[in-house]
Amino acid sequence: MITNTTATTTSPHKPLSAHFTQGLLAHVIRYQRCRACTHAQTLARYACQRCGAEQLVWHDASGLATVRAKTVVSRAPSDDFRALAPYTLVIVELDEGPRLMGHADADVQIGQRVNAGFFEHQGRVLLRFEPIS
């Protein structure tokens, strides 16, 4: 479900990732879609990673996804995440097409359908994917 579309614009005072990070604060996953080839991507970019066109539009994702990869992080990469270890990270494919990484329950399985949730850790809003019953 697309609930919002805005052209990709940046200014010296607004980082390229601002649409994505503001979405997380609002508990919404945002992604870019290319007007030229319709490719969807989650990492904020100035141009489409498939065709190179600079005609990108931001959309809100439904939050529904399928788990494509899973790993357990036993040794946190920084002190900020040490309190969470061990934790499970997954790469999911959103129903809208793009893939992204987030936290998940340890028992989540590759191929399983999940829904995005959000949690705060040390002042950051992070993604957590929960299995769909």
Automatic annotation (TrEMBL):
InterPro entries: ChsH2_C, NA-bd_OB-fold, Thioester_dehydratase-like. Residues 58-118 form the ChsH2 C-terminal OB-fold domain. It comes from the Bacteria. Transmembrane segments: none annotated. This is OB-fold domain-containing protein. It comes from Diaphorobacter aerolatus. The lineage of its organism: Bacteria, Pseudomonadati, Pseudomonadota, Betaproteobacteria, Burkholderiales.
